[in-house]
Amino acid sequence: MKVARKNSKGETRELLLKEYFLNAYLIAVLKKAGEEVARFSKGPKAAPVPVKVRAGS
User: Fold this and answer.
1) Domain coordinates of the chain in residue numbers?
2) 1-49 pLDDT, tens per residue?
3) What gap in Å lies between CA 14 and CA 1, rounded to an integer?
4) What's the confidence (pLDDT) of residue 30?
5) 49: number of CA atoms within 13 Å, CB side?
6) Its domain of life (predicted)?
7) pLDDT at residue number 33
8) Cβ-proximal residues to 53 (8 Å cutoff; 6+ apart), any chain
9) Cα separation, 17 vs 20, whole angstroms
């Protein structure tokens, strides 16, 4: 679906609504990913857990 808009100079600008909503969706996804990465990197570091080694496999 196309939306035609005229600016003050009388020029017509066509906007694709699909592209608009896709861009809005991608911006929201990138923002959420950035917040998750920031939250993950600020979290406490887990201490390594010792594991048992099986002998003779």
Assistant:
1) 17-42
2) 566 666 676 656 666 677 788 899 999 999 999 999 988 887 677 788 8
3) 10
4) 96
5) 3
6) Bacteria
7) 95
8) none
9) 5
The residue among 31, 37, 2, 6 whose CA lies nearest residue 16 is: 2
Q: What DSSP string runs through 2-55?
A: EEEEE-TTS-EEEEEHHHHHHHHHHHHHHHHHHHHHHHHHHSPPPPPPP-PPPS
Buried b or exposed e, range 16-37, using 16+ CB within 10 angstroms: eeeeeeeeeeeeeeeeeeeeee
Query: Residue 12 contacts by C-beta under 8 Å, 6 or more apart in sequence?
Result: 4, 5, 6
Residue that has been written with the tokens 């699909």 in this structure: 18
